[in-house]
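Input structure tokens:
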């Protein structure tokens, strides 16, 4: 089953997220057609196999989400470390400027 070449999934709605989802669905459909040679409507297999396939897909999705969460958590830790370094840099920079400015005799200070 071919997709109408005149359809641009990126401009079906005014919501770019919905358009992206539609684009993913169409690409997934085309991959399925290439792999299985039949549409979902014409795909025959026992009902319990559909359930088994769904369970497997959802388990995979859980793995992907847990992995994504670990990446986000690592990013948050690194972000906090970076913010701490920036704060320390700012504190030390302004402290050093003040110290060096305070150490200069009053007669040598310029405005």
């Amino acid at each position: 089953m071919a997709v109408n070449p005149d359809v641009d999934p990126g401009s079906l709605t005014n919501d770019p997220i919905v358009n992206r989802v539609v684009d993913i669905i169409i690409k997934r459909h085309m991959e399925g057609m290439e792999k299985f040679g039949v549409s979902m409507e014409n795909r025959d297999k026992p009902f319990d196999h559909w359930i088994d396939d769904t369970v497997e897909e959802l388990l995979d999705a859980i793995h992907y989400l847990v992995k994504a969460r670990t990446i986000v958590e690592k990013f948050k830790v690194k972000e906090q470390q970076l913010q701490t370094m920036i704060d320390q840099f700012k504190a030390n920079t302004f402290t050093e400027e003040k110290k060096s400015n305070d150490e200069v005799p009053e007669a040598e200070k310029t405005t």
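The mean pLDDT is 87. Residues 1-43 form one domain.
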